[in-house]
Amino acid sequence: MGSRLRDREAFTAWLMILPSLIGLIVFYLVPAVRAMSISMSSWNLMSAPQDVGLDNYRAMLADGEFWRALELSAYYVLFNIPLQTATGLLLAVLMDRLCRAIALRAIVLLPFLLSNVLVALLWMWLLDPTLGWVNVMLQSVGLTTQTFFSSPVEALATVAAVNTWRYTGMISLLFLAGMQRIPRSILEAAILDGAGEWQLFCRITLPLLRPVMLFVLVTSITGAFQIFDTIAVATNGGPAGSTRVIVYYIYENAFKFHKMGYACAMSMALLFIMALYTAIQMRVFRANESDLAIFNFDLGVVDHAITAPSKTARRVGLGRILAWCLLAALIAVTLIPFWIVVRTALTRPDDLYASTGAWLPPVLTLENFRRALGYVSDDVALAAGGSGSDVNFLRSLLNSMIFSGLVVAGQVVFSAMAAYAFARLRFRGRKLLFALFLVSLMLPNIVLFIPNFILVKELGWLNTYAGMVAPFLLVWAFAIFFLRQTFLSIPRELEEAARLDGASYWTIFWRVVVPVSVPPITAVAILSGVNAWNEFFWPFLVASADDMQVLTVALQAFKSQAPQGAPDWSGLMAAACLAILPSFALLLFFGRFVVQSVQSPRKK
């Protein structure tokens, strides 16, 4: 009987993992192997591939543009990561010392909830050489205007600064979560020994944040090397190739020049570089160790550290006033761009030149929203400087809702099933299989997108919902890892009581585990929805038809269709406002879950 029970447990585990395993094999492992195979061929998608051995790799090593693209990617990382990490750490310290309100954390997270496409469009308007609010402010204090995205010298740094604005809030919350796991008793002991704020930070807080710092640097630099959306919208690799980073160069060779073999060779080189970097980072930061382990404290102390206010000096002094001013300035930098977008959306196109730098529109109008929604005739839209009604905003909105809804439903259900099997059920090969899912997190998107694009094309799924959702529907390794850690914390007594009542493993999962895990499952659903809603690269590749465009792709098309040569800023900002609304609604109704979803679950 014991053998039959173990067999039933293993059979149930494999059934629960099967959908995610199919997704892992079909859209991660096989594409990775296929990318390596394609990298040794010459293939333009029109004729049969021809085996060329290592010729693509030799050509890559001799390609000056390839090395230039890698160099630009390295420069981008050097611009972006130190600024992003330092600003996020500073914001986390200010929130930890001054204010831990959920509302404040929701505000700093807001830019992260926007897509890279929206962020790029927003800052293209703010940094416009003629009408942009930033240049108007520079002129008001006697400084010269800057061309930003249009300058070969400034463009790459501008892209780095824009993405710093988007990701700083998320990074600050990761650091804040790490700070709140540091027992207050350690800080209080240091204060009794006469340590000041700066000594507390340098001698205690920063060393104990090493695991969080490792996670931030590995994920941030991995993401920075894969930057694509912002460049595709704002610069198209220009001006003069000054922002043609490695992923954009791979994209050009694969989908513009149809050199699939050469593009895959470069993507494999990028995979090697990122894997080497990650291994070095984990060695330098001692990934398998935690400095907190040297302190003897229990979970009650950790809970106190998370919930109790700091007992550091609270008297009002010059330093504290300056800290509050700095926090207010960072919040202003987060919120002001949103108001400028709203003000532009409510301004008539003819009034833009006369109202540059104004905080309120001279004449309030909703006509821009009507043009963005396609509710006016082509002649009226063109007369207003728009692009006509070629972009069906409502259809794109519906496409985004369908795409996001399918992805969320699939990822939440299948990831929860797989996570439960890995956390609670015993079967052979469990550790090895779980390791394969974790390895899939390290694969760069560009390595997978080329073989997956070929697969979708061969299946005839281009410009279909099936083609858009296929790589995302069945598996999301991050969600499996996240929920596994949560399910491990559930008391086994609940399951044992259910088994005594004759409940099957499926019944225990749906009737016991899922109901007590609603908050983390909700967090996964929110993160999944945000990622799907903001996805640009994959829908841009496989669903470019007008009736299949998702919102991010439609906004890019809307921006590029202005017949006068300059973007229709009023209509574009109105469309951006409509696209931002779901993010505001998410924060309004699920603010606490959204904030908690970017913080690591506590082990119990």
TrEMBL record:
* Localization annotation: Cell membrane
Main site of residence?
membrane
Q: Which InterPro entries match?
A: ABC_transporter_permease (IPR051393), MetI-like (IPR000515), MetI-like_sf (IPR035906)
ABC transmembrane type-1 domain sequence ranges? 70-281, 397-590
| GO CC annotation, single | plasma membrane
Describe its membrane topology: Multi-pass membrane protein
**UniProt keywords, alphabetically:** Cell membrane, Membrane, Plasmid, Transmembrane, Transmembrane helix, Transport
GO biological process terms, semicolon-separated: transmembrane transport
Give the transmembrane ranges. Answer: 12-30, 74-94, 106-126, 155-177, 208-228, 260-280, 321-342, 401-422, 434-456, 462-483, 508-530, 572-595
Protein family membership: Belongs to the binding-protein-dependent transport system permease family.
Q: What is this protein called?
A: ABC transmembrane type-1 domain-containing protein
